């Protein structure tokens, strides 16, 4: 199911806009929270046991994160036994700063890929977002992996490493992020990969 | 299967650092498959020392060290690209990379990418080191540019450019989607 575009922020509504900035700021700072959010956004509706199973994180952590995300207003809980969690895709575009689920996915990859966590440790999450854009240029066939180093001002070996590590965020985002072309105007549909891989994550059986 | 391998101990086999970075460190299934295909072919991969520091930057020093200990890779002081055909190959590859992007020119091209085209030709012509050269890369854009350079100079039969994915298949556990 394609997620429903919901919010474009900051809108004229200052209060809602600032709240959404704060929400996105929280996700950028918390990779595990971002991981739960992006999973539900892309593959939901999902039950909490399904999230636990798919992401291999403790049940209490899943419940805590879902509660936080619900309080932030970016997921909704529906139904009764099982309760399904649905996420609204967020998008922030202001003065050239773009955050969409693809960026949050890159942030979430810190939890599962040590090259990404090492990169953020050294360069911060802002540079990671910039690396997502540069990696897109590589996979769209415009620049080599090494050419990512110069605009990011990082060593070439680190550039190669982060371009390779960001592949899941780009491949899945291309399929599931409704705002993918906001990050990659003009090149979104040129992005492709050397090998095919299945970006559809199966929802685990909802029995827990 | 061996006769189908694009690798041969008869060739000089140059490998770009991105191949090691992509294959990862010992302990992963992808590294195991890469190591196996190289060792079965009886090949020693040559890593030009000018790109060696990228190995550490890319976090795969353990992989290169192990490969060196086991004798299937070594760092070499590759020859200077000086033969006119070799510098031409390098220039063609550089222009081919620059032409991929409307807002980049040749000066924006990182030197280490086209240098593999130059090195391949230099090995072929210099010192009679090899009749055949293979270049392995994990960068599709660099691979295409080197191919253009090699074919426009008529060396297609003597220099082959392959990617890591010509050597191993990707398996599901190579990456975690989220």
Describe it.
The complex is a heterodimer of chains A (208) and B (178). Chain A has eleven helices and five strands, in the order ααβααββββααααααα. With 208 residues, chain A is mainly alpha-helical. A three-stranded antiparallel beta sheet of chain A has the order 1-3-2. A two-stranded antiparallel ribbon of chain A has the order 4-5. Chain A is globular and about 50 Å long. The mean pLDDT of chain A is 90. Chain B is an alpha/beta fold and 178 residues long. Helices cover 44% and strands 12% of the residues of chain B. The longest helix of chain B has 15 residues. Chain B is globular. The termini of chain B are far apart. Classes of the chains: A mainly alpha (208), B alpha/beta (178). The interface between A and B is large, with 41 and 36 residues.
- Tally the beta strands of chain B: 5
Helix content of chain A: 40-55%
SSE pattern of chain A, N- to C-terminal:
HHEHHEEEEHHHHHHH
Structural class determined from secondary elements of chain A: mainly alpha
Largest sheet of chain A: 3 strands, antiparallel
The counted number of beta strands of chain A is 5
The largest chain-to-chain contact, stated as pair and per-chain residue counts, equals: A-B, 41 and 36 residues
SSE diagram, text form:
The complex is a heterodimer of chains A (208) and B (178).
Chain A: H1 14-29, H2 31-43, E1 46-47, H3 48-55, H4 59-71, E2 75-78, E3 84-87, E4 92-94, E5 97-99, H5 101-108, H6 114-123, H7 125-139, H8 149-152, H9 156-165, H10 167-176, H11 180-183
Antiparallel strand pairs in A: 1-3, 2-3, 4-5
Chain B: E1 12-15, H1 17-23, H2 29-41, E2 45-48, H3 52-57, H4 61-70, E3 73-76, H5 84-98, H6 115-125, E4 133-137, H7 140-152, E5 159-163, H8 164-167
Parallel strand pairs in B: 1-2, 1-4, 2-3, 4-5
